[in-house]
């Protein structure tokens, strides 16, 4: 799934509510999404991205041999000159999307959609449980392989990747590369020896800011917008509480903030040394300090 498709999907999920009536049309304004994500949307690619979502189908196992094959969108319309996309979801998929929104964060879903290796997905789930500690416990190779279904606890199936070089090449290194490129984590691993042979593994995990920050669909659109505004101010090193409160409570300044960050990220404004100072100067706020004032002695 492309970054543009993911933006559209996450924006749609942010507006989805379990009390919505069948046939509800969800309106997404392209300009608002550009400001929210800080990414420039190429309008020539917008049509293909929406078409790809309309054509994308999902296979859902319902148990006891039953399954559902369903498309995500029932319809999509782009309203020219208004920069608006109107989307209608497939009703049979609605309960699954509600469940998805309830049980995944935007970061987790972004990882699921971007990680193509099944082993990367399982290792991502594993390190997520240890993110606040920074390292996992030490797993024996047997337990680790059980978790990844590389070894059958009952011994009925042949063990996979018995040579450590094959395990590294086909499982570990691929998983580390994908997780580091597509999720909010940077991970590494260390193999432990007992005697002369490798017998266990430990993962190390550090939080990072992924290249594509997902739209936080678990929040309401207004809350997501305010969160992104706060993050933008932190990135600009504008952290004085009074100044932050003033900007966040002034709609015109919020619009200016999103527009400024968008233009900096897309190279339309050059501000390499002090972008926060430039923003304050442009909007008559330069007399106020960017940083929290130190108390007088």
TrEMBL record:
Q: Which SUPFAM superfamilies match?
A: Winged helix' DNA-binding domain (SSF46785)
Give GO terms for biological process. Answer: DNA replication initiation
Q: Which domain of life is it from?
A: Bacteria
Per the record, the similarity remark reads:
Belongs to the initiator RepB protein family.
InterPro entries given in the database record = Initiator_Rep_WH1, WH-like_DNA-bd_sf, WH_DNA-bd_sf
Where does the secretion signal sit in this chain?
none
What range(s) does the Initiator Rep protein WH1 domain occupy? 1-127
User: What GO molecular functions are on record for this protein?
Assistant: DNA-directed DNA polymerase activity
State the protein's name: Initiator Replication protein
């Amino acid at each position: 799934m492309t970054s543009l498709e993911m933006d559209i999907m996450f924006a749609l999920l942010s507006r989805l509510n379990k009390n919505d009536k069948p046939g509800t049309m969800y309106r997404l304004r392209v300009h608002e999404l550009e400001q929210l994500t800080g990414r420039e949307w190429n309008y020539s690619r917008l049509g293909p991205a929406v078409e790809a979502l309309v054509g994308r189908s999902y296979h859902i196992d319902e148990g006891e041999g039953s399954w559902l094959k369903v498309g995500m969108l029932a319809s999509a319309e782009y309203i020219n000159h208004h920069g608006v996309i109107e989307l209608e979801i497939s009703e049979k998929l609605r309960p699954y999307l509600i469940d998805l929104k309830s049980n995944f964060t935007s970061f987790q879903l972004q990882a699921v959609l971007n990680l193509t290796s099944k082993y990367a997905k399982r290792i991502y789930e594993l390190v997520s449980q240890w993110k606040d500690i920074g390292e996992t416990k030490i797993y024996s190779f047997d337990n680790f392989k059980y978790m990844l279904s590389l070894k059958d606890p009952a011994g009925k199936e042949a063990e996979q990747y018995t040579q450590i070089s094959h395990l590294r090449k086909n499982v570990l290194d691929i998983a580390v590369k994908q997780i580091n490129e597509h999720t909010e984590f940077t991970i590494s691993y260390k193999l432990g020896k007992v005697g002369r042979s490798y017998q266990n593994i430990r993962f190390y995990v550090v939080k990072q800011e992924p290249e594509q920050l997902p739209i936080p669909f678990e929040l309401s659109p207004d809350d997501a917008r305010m969160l992104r505004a706060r993050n933008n101010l932190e990135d600009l090193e504008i952290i004085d509480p009074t100044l932050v409160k003033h900007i966040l409570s002034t709609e015109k300044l919020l619009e200016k903030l999103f527009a400024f960050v968008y233009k900096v990220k897309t190279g339309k404004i050059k501000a390499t040394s002090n972008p926060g100072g430039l923003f304050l100067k442009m909007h008559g706020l330069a007399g106020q300090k960017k940083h929290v004032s130190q108390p007088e002695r």
